[in-house]
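input
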Amino acid sequence: MKFVLRRSLPSIAGLVGLLLTVGFAAVAFLDAPVWFPVAFAVVMVGIQYVVNPYIIQWLVPATVIAHDGRRYAIDHPLGDIVARRCADAGIPMVKLGIVDDGNPNAFTFGRTPRDARMWVTRGLLERLDERELDAVVAHEVGHIKHWDFAVMTVAAVIPMALYLAYLIARGSDRAEARAVAIGAYVAYLASQLTLLALSRARETAADHWSCESTGDGDALASALVKIAYGMGQVNAAQKEEAHALIAQGKEGRKEAARLAARSRRAQSMRAMGIFEPRSAEALSAAFAQGIDPDRAMAAMRWDLANPWGATLEKLSSHPLVARRIRDLEESGLPGAPRQWSALRALSAASPEQIFEARARFARELAVAVAPWVLVVGAVVFGLLPDSRFGMGLGLAVAGLLFFVKQHVRYPGDHQPVDEVAGLLERLDAGPVAGIGVTVRGQIVGRGMPGYVLSPDLVVADASGFVPLLYRQPIPFAAAFFGLFRAEKFLGQEVEARGWYRRLPGPVVELRDVRTVDGRTARSFEWVARYAGAVLLVVAGVALMLAGVA
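output
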């Protein structure tokens, strides 16, 4: 419990501090009653606490398994595992539900441990062996023992309350209200990041409880990898099913849309599951032909060695899988993983590779942020001289910085890739700088299964698969491609040129894609970005000349 508190208290304190700061600012500047901040928070928390379980049960319906206080009425080993882990944790038997969904996942929710529900998907039961299932159940029981669902329910109200305070202050005519509104909105953005940090801390604590109670951290690590792989498999199967339905005509398209809606509804609960689906992309891409621990370690190396991994993790509700395994390895617990070793994976990268990844991160971050710092500084804070020449100089410099950014983002050389999964081993990848690549394979589906306006494609070869992002600068052009042209590429052998990035999942932003029979599609987003930078420079120079004329 000390570990849980140590990991969670900074985030909880930060959230409460943000709420009280904005609340008392409203008291000071808007003449709100002194009791307003506390009463407002209590009411919001109370409403959320009462209705939240009902909302989740509606979003993700499940078949509830009855129990007599000692055993669940189910033949599957899941029943005995859940009963045993609840007893070990000293909590009442939970309400156990089976969700008819092929995606492997599990999550808990409720108000108190006596009211706790544990939802387990069919996909999880189909893909995990008994050791792995035990580790996942123990992880979920850890959430209940630590009252995580109650903590997260209460904490999630704070960003909502801050945003509501922003809306109220923004609607006021008083001059002081503007400062309160700005402060509330900044606090709202900070609270979102703090809430994600709290969620990651609770996931880490649940991992520790699973490892401690089962004495088998390798089983949890293996389960996490299988879940990632399973999510990728289910996603690919959904793409194929949606493609087959759409080919059947109007009724098929309606059914594909219903399947997509059901999938999106289940995905809406991703923050509560044991694994963040977006973080599964890298691992699932590595296992298109089956689980290969070496490929898993190669994918995990990027998470640990490249600073972009830690940076992008800040935007996720779950820690990256490599960091979860590394944390267990460093925990000192008797059941710490040995077979699945993130530390061993990191040691496979040379010091030179790690140094270059960190240096590249610093350069990319500077390139990405510099033009916007100049623009915001000029527009918001008035850092440039208040003259035509000064404004023109600012525009010209910003345009040059944007041009440099596009050059880093879209290099001109496109090197052939031997196999798609090999991209995962590149430690120099990140979300800013593009790596020019040429990939060959078969288009196996759309980026969003069953969505007829989805312009993104997925290419696969014998080693794995990677999404191809189709981007256009003209409004609705990408949707037009998705509606009228994307389907013609499905099932085709293609050669695609583009720029590989990690977001943290692997993607290739398309430059062009060509089928063996000559059908071609091109993206012009990169051209528009270069053109925009050039136009900004020209406009700045023109303004400078007008200022000295």
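quick obs: The radius of gyration is 26 Å.
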